Fold:
Amino acid sequence: MSLEIWISILIVVAMPLAMFTDLSARRIPNYLTFPLVVAAIVTRIQFQGWPGLALALTGAFLAPISLVILHGGKRPGMGDLKLAVGVGAALGPITAVVSMLATALIGGALALVWMMRPGGLLSELIPACFPRVAALGKNSPDNGAEQGPNHALETMPYGVAIGLGAMLIMGVRLWTDHDVWFL
Structure:
């Protein structure tokens, strides 16, 4: 099998696990991220030799830096950064940076959805700005549900955006079949 197939297997196995654990436990554990990094580096060395090690390490360095820059001044969680290291080691520097760009776009869309949940910023802003829209939800069963004091302040599970971004870019790379994507 080729390098692309092995890297695709790594991404397709690790990203859904990371998304699930981030959604359910609100953390991305080390027992998921560290084996991803090691497997990505070993796979690249196996197929590309020393240049593969250099590509994996460069990707592992650039992906979390790109994530921090694209995160807009907000500090991402450590699990998110370690997941970005694994994505970078697997995809290589160019594809990792493109993946983090896709992650930022997906993360922005998910943030809008996250803010519209009950107790989120937009769930309170929309009724204040658009009273007719607010009147439509008056009879909903969740209208009077009690929310915890920090419910609206909860953070969004960003591992979902990282996983979706990595799988999207990996799929685009395989679909377009350009080797330059995989450097």
